[in-house]
Amino acid sequence: MGRITDNRADVYQEITDQMIAMIEAGTRPWSKSWNGSNVPTIPLRSTGVPYRGINVLTLWVASMTKGFASPHWLTFKQALALGGCVRKGEKGSTVVYANKIVVGDGSHGEANGEAGEGGRRQVAFLKRYTVFNAEQIDGIEAQYPTPAPIITATNPDDRDAELDALFGRVPVPVRHHGAQPYYRPSADHVVMPHFADFHTSDDYYSTLAHELCHASGHQDRLARPTLLSTKREDYAREELVAELGAAFVSGAIGIKLHDREDHAAYLSSWLAALRNDKRCIFTATRQAQDAADWLLSHMGAEQAASLEEAA
């Protein structure tokens, strides 16, 4: 069997460089809205199935930089099949698909994969696809209108009974006191300032989502190593996972992510991690998606799963 090759490393580096450039420019790609929209929605494939993990982040970046409001993305062929046509001169955006393939007989060692039965091994691969936003395609407007988010807060100053009910289903105690939100692993509970201490209801609920994403890493849940690590770099990575997870949850339920000022201190650590490891943002988005899935599943608002991002 011939040697398997792909452009995996180039995709890792390309996406990492894109994230570094945006953070250096003062923009966190997961915490900004665009094109007049108050809430970034989760990007959707042609079938309506939500993208996940790293693809959510890269398509948010594309929407932010190009001013797209539509959450719908299609390949060139998918557009044609629906009777549409990508406008001349439009540039697509990259999404990736990650999986493993079983190859070989083990005679060349295990350096490039995981050994299995009979000496065969699994080799990871990452494939890129180019997709276009629905706003770049003529002839499909009626098929891909911009959907409303699942939930929208009706009054930014009031509690939202539906959101309270959703968050109330999550099996982590929430206590209200003090001025600083945090999750305490040893006691397995979240501490939140009182609702009135937040500027808007979205600030409160997205901050709660952030702390509950931390709670997802408890040893009895996702057992995320960075949650209990005392290393400074691991602490920063855990904060990145929780921030990304909260962004995914916020996009799914229709609230605006609170751009927390205390996270500015982590920007240099995040930049260092990205520069030192081109897989860092892929790992963080995968763990963040796992955290968001755990939270949304208990809330009863889980998104459809896919095989696409396991890099």
What features would you highlight for this structure?
311 residues, alpha+beta, 2 domains, 4-stranded antiparallel sheet, 3-stranded mixed sheet, 36% helix, 14% strand, globular, MPTase-PolyVal, single-stranded DNA binding, ArdC_N, DUF1738 domain-containing protein, Antirestriction_ArdC
What would you say this structure looks like, in words?
Residues 10-132 form the N-terminal domain. GO terms for molecular function: single-stranded DNA binding. It holds the Pfam family ArdcN. Residues 162-286 form the Polyvalent protein metallopeptidase domain. The chain is globular, with a radius of gyration of 20 Å. The protein is of the alpha+beta class and 311 residues long. It starts with 7 loop residues before the first helix and ends in a 12-residue tail after the last helix. The strands form three sheets. Strands 1, 3, 4 and 5 form a four-stranded antiparallel sheet that branches. The chain is 36% helix and 14% strand. Helix 1 (8-24) runs antiparallel to helix 7. Strand 8 (182-184) and strand 9 (189-192) form a beta hairpin. The chain folds into two domains: 8-138, no CATH class; 161-299, no CATH class. The relative contact order is 0.16. The chain has helices at residues 8-24, 54-66, 76-81, 161-168, 201-215, 232-253, 267-276, 280-299, and strands at 73-74, 85-86, 93-103, 114-115, 121-133, 137-138, 174-176, 182-184, 189-192.
